[in-house]
Amino acid sequence: MPQAVETIIARCLIEPGFLGKPGAANESLAQVDFEPAELGKIRRFAGFICKVKHNHLWGLFPATRRLICHYGIELDIFTKYRLEHDPPAFNTGIEAVDDRLISFINFLDAHFSSYGNSYPYPMLLEVLRHERFIWETRLVPTSPASQSISSDDLQASRWIDFQRLVVGLDPSLRLFGFHYDVQAITAQLEEANLEDEILPGPDRALAYYFDRHSHSVRVVEVDPITTQLLSLINGKRSVRRVIFASRALGLGHARPVEFREFFEDAHRFGIIKFLPERAVTQFRVQAALPERSLNRRTIRATKVSARKVSLPQKRF
Amino acid sequence: MLYKDGCLADSVVGLAYSSTVPDFIRASDGLVDYVEVPFELLRHNPGVFDSCAGIPIVLHCASLSIGGSVRCSDQTVSEIEDWLHRTESPWLGEHLAFITAAREEVGEILPAGIPAEPYDIGYTVSPPMNRHTLERAANNFESYSQRLNARLLLENSPLYFQMPSSTMSQSEFVSELCQLSDAGLLLDLAHLYISAGNIGFDPMKELQRLPLEKVLEIHISGVDIQPDGLWDDHANAAPDILYEMLERVMQDGRSRAITLEYNWASTFSRTVLSEQLEKVRETLTRVPQAA
Q: Smallest Cα–Cα separation from B63: which of B49, B84, B85, B34?
């Protein structure tokens, strides 16, 4: 019988379906004089093993992990995940890490989302998505830069030529709206200095893109008008058509030079690129962005235009 | 690390491997004596061995299933032997646990009459502690010791629930196993503390019931205290009571290897790691030194 004990315990730990059916599990456990009340402890142990198997995850999603730990719900989450899912290649080696990561992150997103507004830790979903965008942006393949027009040529171009250029988004760019200041929360978590009460702040939109110069992911806060302009860029419209569309949406009084500054700054930061002919880059809308009335004072990104670069004059 | 005839010349302090540990050790200016590396990690990522160049390695293992009924495959045992030689590890630390279990024990036979593949839990579990398991563990220990031609240390597993068909306490089980075999012990103080909390006994008293003279290596790590029990936690600093337990164990003046296991989060604070190392060193200054 001792060997049967090991077998039954092993089955409870590695077959979530078996473990998830109290009747079946209890029947087997009764064969080995196991108290049915102890079944909950075996479930927790299965969740604990699952948690340990996902230690690699925390290097990629450190703020999410720290926040989950901060609220003391790490084991609860992994126990629920283990009961509802059979993690990909659970018992195999390092090669299955990415599959496991994606499976778990999808679960976490769905788990946090399922509560709607009633979840006691609503910032968790936003911090998770913030880190997920950083991770996913890093994985987007980079396209050859040669197809794009250089900043030098761009600045030297006449306005009439500039307007004819087709403008596309960088393939790595993602935009997302947040209710919480996820950048402040992640910084506080990193410094082990999290505020006692985390309250939602003003809605904000963040742009995520891969900076080819530094080979790192950059995150910048963008204002509502920049968000709107970026949403009109689809790799098919020319600069002229983007401006036309944005004017129709409320930017009728903006001067052409302001539009040009926006385009040049966004190009310099690598968020957009100009093409001599139509491309296929599509804008990735991850979710509804915060709604705001258009502010006509500026059409430039808050941080995208933080510094100016002097470029030599050249015509093309 | 001077290790000869089953003894250490002096107590040494090491860290369980994580990706940041080798550089930390190199920068620690002699504060850390060795790195403990799991065989399973080396097997899947041999580059880890190169990353530890110049640092003494102690090999750890979770594959032998000493407490189980399913023998570890010859292939795996050969690989362990190979890594013992490559790392020049003075011993092999292995869990007193099972990690696989036979399906046919509950009648799972394939249609062709062939036993199904064993269950592979992928994590070590403390076995039922009774005479049957005791004899099996002793036999497995002797068999693997001879096959590997290496010193094996057995590590106490944490108890998260009362294992059915257990008839003895863990200290009784471990003590009798040491009498039946030449097993050395790897005493995980966090595991002992966790077991005490979950099963309901005094960890300090339980320490005294263990054959401490057999302990050659000690593990220290964090403990996650949840409403329904205590859990192993290599991502947070050890509670102070573990250092009290360490001092108690070290009162006999024997030299031992003390390994801090903070290897679950690559982002583990270097400041906290340094503080924990300092606490170990401070504890060692308060106990009798080896003659």
A: B84
Which of A2, A8, A41 minimises the CB distance to B160?
A41
A210's enclosing H/E stretch is strand A204-211
pLDDT tens per residue across all 316 residues of chain A:
556 889 889 988 988 677 666 666 667 766 777 777 778 898 899 999 999 988 888 788 999 999 999 999 999 999 999 988 876 555 445 445 677 888 999 999 999 999 877 788 889 999 999 999 999 998 876 655 545 677 788 888 898 889 999 999 998 899 999 999 999 999 999 888 888 888 898 999 999 999 887 888 999 898 888 888 999 999 999 999 999 999 888 888 888 888 899 999 888 888 898 876 544 444 443 443 433 333 333 333 333 333 322 222 222 2
CB contact under 8 A, B120 and A14: yes
Segments in chain B forming alpha helices (H): 21-27, 39-44, 47-51, 74-87, 131-148, 170-180, 189-195, 203-209, 240-250, 270-285
Q: Do A44 and B228 touch (CB under 8 A)?
A: yes
Q: What is the C-alpha separation between B265 and A143, in angstroms, rounded?
A: 34
Residues from chain A contacting residue B128 (CB–CB below 8 Å) = 2, 5-6
Closest CA to B231 of A68, A29, A76: A76
Q: What pLDDT, in 10s, does the model give residues A199-233?
A: 898 999 999 999 887 888 999 898 888 888 999 99
Distance CA A154, CA A314 (A): 8
Q: Are A234 and A272 in contact (CB under 8 A)?
A: no
Handedness of CA B187, B191, B193, B199 (dihedral sign): negative
Cβ-defined contact of B102 to A32 (cutoff 8 Å): no
Let me know: does A286 contact A181? Beta carbons within 8 Å.
Answer: no
A vs B: CB pairs below 8 A: 115
Q: Could B127 and A6 be called an inter-chain contact, meaning their C-beta atoms sit closer than 8 Å?
A: yes
Both tokens of A301, joined, read 């990104």
Chain A residues whose CB is inside 8 A of the B224 CB are 74-75
Tell me the pLDDT tens digit for each residue of B224-256: 999 989 999 999 999 999 999 999 999 999 999
Q: Kindly state whether A75 is in contact with chain B, defined as any CB-CB distance less than 8 angstroms.
A: yes
Q: Determine the 3-state secondary structure of B27 from DSSP.
A: helix
Q: Which A residues, 144 through 203, put their C-beta within 8 Å of a C-beta on chain B?
A: 192
**What are the chain A neighbours of B107 within 8 Å (beta carbons)?**
none
Q: Distance between CA B288 and CA B291 in Å, rounded?
A: 9
- The dihedrals phi and psi of A105, each to the nearest 5 degrees, come to -65, -40
